[in-house]
Amino acid sequence: MTLHQEEPPPSPSQADSEAVLDALREQGFPPLESADVPELRLLVGRLRRSQGAPEPVAHVLGTFVPGPAGMLPVRVYQPEPRSGPRPLLVFFHGGGWVAGDLDLVDRPLRRLANATGAVVASAGYRLAPETQFPGPTHDAYAALCALAARAAEFGADPGHLIVAGESAGANLAAAACLTSREEGGPRPALQILICPPLAPARHTHFASYRDKADGYLNTRAAMERFWDLYVPDADAARSPLAAPLLADDFYGLPPALILTAEHDPLRDEAEEYARRLERDQVPATVSRIPGALHIFFLLPHLTAFRAALCDIERAVRGHPPTAPWTRPGPRRHGAPS
User: Fold this and answer.
1) Helix, strand, coil: what percent of the chain each, to 5?
2) What is the Cα–Cα distance from 157 to 10, expressed in whole angstroms?
């Protein structure tokens, strides 16, 4: 006797993803790899149309912090006060290192601040190709240091720092953690990496780059182009500050929550990063969201976003402040800007 088993219904995230892809096709959204840089910036900006109305927060503050080549824009989201001190969560937006800005993540970060109770500081950085590696990594570390020093001004606990980012911003968040360890800078209690690119896209061996190469908006060809615009020099691309997965070791880095999307070429390298952290005694949690696209965090109406928000809320509440770094000896990974 042959038992017939029906295919299980698609997950809510899968259905959401198909609807997003259908809508982008109807809008004539071109392949990311075929667009020039000005068009890429316009395309990424168009995603804001699908983000819905902004969720109110108690207060939004616009400010600047000093970077290595000038002032960097920052937007601080303060949720309604709760009992006890609030962590400061420093966040870096995505956009392939070439696009995106504070507006791109405004609506997701309002939701994030309200859900976690953290004060969320969204930090800008210089974009490629005008500023290539290592400039954006230096911007991210400068912003992390400056914002940590101003935590009390924002109503946050100066000793409870979290660093986070989405896509290219997650790459910069991981690089900032490496730099802070080597330089003895602010020590985050947690790093939250959402769909991070952590290794060079060209000649990659990760299966998700093959299995999810096309058809899901963020393609293999698009990632290769983003990497080429950000790190055009092959030797520089092997720096751990460009590709954190290539670090010699991960000892002493902050515990990590790594959120990955099923339909993303970057999925497998992000999950490998978690394994490398665990190998070096750094607690790491991976949450792979079934059916999700790379851009899920930018669309707060999606089931995948809501699932991620629950994971982030648990992680933020589960990681108290940490002691200062104890690892001796500064050791620089990146070239000076």
Assistant:
1) 40, 15, 45
2) 42
DSSP 3: P
User: What is the rounded (10 degree) CA torsion for 68, 70, 75, 76?
Assistant: 50
Q: Are 134 and 242 in contact (CB under 8 A)?
A: yes
Distance (Å, whole) CA 242 – CA 184 = 20
Report the C-alpha gap between 77 and 68 in whole angstroms.
Answer: 24
Structure tokens at 68: 């290595």
* Residue 234 contacts residue 176 (beta carbons within 8 Å): no
Ordered DSSP codes for 148-185? HHTTGGGTS-TT-EEEEEETHHHHHHHHHHHHHHHHT-
pLDDT digits (tens, 9 = 90+) for 180-236: 999 999 999 999 999 999 999 999 999 999 999 999 999 999 999 999 999 999 999
Catalytic residues: 167, 264, 294
Q: Answer yes or no: pTM beyond 0.85.
A: yes
